[in-house]
Write a structure and sequence with these properties.
Oligomer: single chain
Number of strands: 12
Order of helices and strands: EHEEHHEHEEHHEHEHHHHHEHEEHEHH
CATH topology of the largest domain: Alpha-Beta Plaits
Distance between the termini: 61 Å
Number of helices: 16
CATH architecture of the largest domain: 2-Layer Sandwich
CATH class of the largest domain: Alpha Beta
Shape: globular
CATH superfamily of the largest domain: Reverse transcriptase/Diguanylate cyclase domain
Number of domains: 3
Strand order of the largest sheet: 5-6-1-7-8
Strand content: 15-25%
Radius of gyration: 23 Å
Helix content: 40-55%
Length: 383
């Protein structure tokens, strides 16, 4: 049986959830994100994309392109809820599900075909189930490997179904722009095009003399990808390697007390996410970005691992304090708390410790789940 991989990508996920939940937004140019001078676009509806608005674009730029856009604040808890439903559909089909984000995943359906029909029939079933359960649409790419499936899912958005049979991989990829190659990046894409390479076919057949200055020792690998070659398997058990919470400030902040209050708030948010996943962290870090965009990181390992907000906030405060001492007068545009060396709490027998020392954390988590993320705040997080 030939290998069959699906790449399922929800269409304008955050914006589509907002339009579904609020019918008055249907058909309108919707931007999901925090308004303000330094806000960024988290998601853009297809209606607003026609004006050139894209995800990760500065909000100011987006509103200049589409002044009449409707801005909606993100509701991560709601998006996570819908995502769980979507991934439940995936797991009805196969245990081989590799999630890439809340709204995107690879599925290896090779072994599912005998019971559920061919890969195309399975793709249609997934799309229909998602629409029935959530009211949303998804685009699906069907191919013999992950790389081609990901490219295919983007060929017919929204609500698309693109199939690339093994014998047609080159025929489909060759005329495509090199900008569609996953992982190429905007700046590298510009350099590749400046070298006279505009399509997959040109990239696939380019000599080493052209590719080496662009990609170095990865030249042969890039050439293979342009030919649609990808031996990577769908990995359903990829461990979460890090978890973070960060914020870009509306104006640069320089007051140490204000910065520490912001950091305490971010530590609380990161730990809440950590506990929701049943994880603990063995390494706590801070991400610091100055007004001139220069970024610093500081981290420290801890024993035992923890998910307690008080502990994480304390270590983060110490790391930031030391940095501020050696960068007196610095103004910051971004702060973040980064938790790494993650492990399941259950494997470490830490639930008793969490119950004993984390009553406040549990109370805050429950209140926020019932009444919203801003229902309660710690005193240390108030500037």
């Amino acid at each position: 049986m030939s290998r069959a991989v699906l790449h399922v990508d929800m269409d304008a996920f955050y914006a589509s959830v907002e339009q579904h939940d609020d019918p008055t937004l249907a058909g309108k140019p919707v931007i999901v994100g925090w308004a303000g001078g330094r806000g960024v676009v988290a998601a853009a509806s297809y209606e607003v994309r026609t004006f050139g608005v894209r995800s990760a674009m500065p909000m100011g730029t987006a509103l200049r392109l589409c002044p009449h856009a409707v801005c909606v604040r993100p509701r991560m808890a709601r998006y996570q809820e819908v995502s769980r439903t979507v991934f439940g559909v995936f797991h009805e089909i196969t245990p081989l599900v590799e999630g890439l984000s809340l709204d995107e995943a690879f599925l290896d359906v090779t072994a599912s075909q005998e019971l559920m029909g061919g890969a195309v029939a399975i793709a249609r079933r997934i799309k229909e189930r998602i629409r029935a359960l959530t009211g949303l649409t998804a685009s699906v790419g069907v191919a013999p490997n992950k790389l081609v499936a990901k490219i295919a899912s983007d060929l017919d958005k929204p609500d698309g179904l693109s199939v690339v049979a093994p014998e047609r991989v080159r025929a489909v990829l060759d005329p495509l722009s090199v900008r569609r190659l996953p992982g190429l990046g905007r700046k590298t894409g510009e350099r590749v095009e400046a070298a006279g390479i505009h399509t997959f076919a040109q990239l696939r057949s380019a000599p080493d003399a052209v590719l080496w200055p662009l990609f170095g020792r990865y030249a042969a690998w890039v050439r293979e990808r342009a030919a649609g070659v990808d031996e990577c398997r769908v990995e359903p058990d990829l461990e979460e390697k890090s978890l973070s919470a960060e914020d870009t400030f509306e104006t640069d902040l320089g007051d140490p007390r204000t910065l520490q209050a912001q950091l305490a708030r971010l530590a609380d948010t990161a730990c809440e996410r950590l506990r929701a996943r049943g994880l603990v962290s063995g390494c706590i870090g801070v991400k610091i970005r100055r007004h001139d965009f220069v970024t610093f990181t500081r981290q420290r390992s801890i024993t035992p691992e923890t998910c307690a907000s008080r502990v994480v906030a304390g270590v983060a405060a110490e790391l930031l304090g030391r940095w501020l001492e050696s960068h007196a007068g610095a103004k910051l545009r971004l702060l973040g708390v980064v938790l790494t060396e993650l492990k399941p709490a259950a494997q470490l027998g830490l639930f008793e410790e969490v119950r004993r020392t984390g009553r406040l954390d549990a109370t805050l988590d429950e209140a926020r789940a019932r009444f919203g993320a801003r229902a309660l705040r710690r005193g240390s997080a108030i500037g």
